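thought: fold this chain, then report.
action: predict
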Amino acid sequence: MLRLRLKRTGRKASPSYRLVIMERKTRRDGRPIEEVGYYNPITKKSSFNIKKITYWLKVGAKPSKTVLHLLTKSNIIEI
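observation:
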């Protein structure tokens, strides 16, 4: 099953995350199928590729709880 989830990048004590498409059982920092955005929790900056995200959601990828919250907050998905 495909998931939209966060992959951690950045240094120790200053995390940043990339929004990626991965298989559900892949490890957190494993190789993604595709990267579709990023999120920095310290500066609250985020950038998402809306076309790719909607494509993967139509194909059947499910977002994690955190990603669902981020996408609803940025008005990409409506609950």
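thought: worth noting. The chain is about 25% helix and 40% strand.
final: tokens above.
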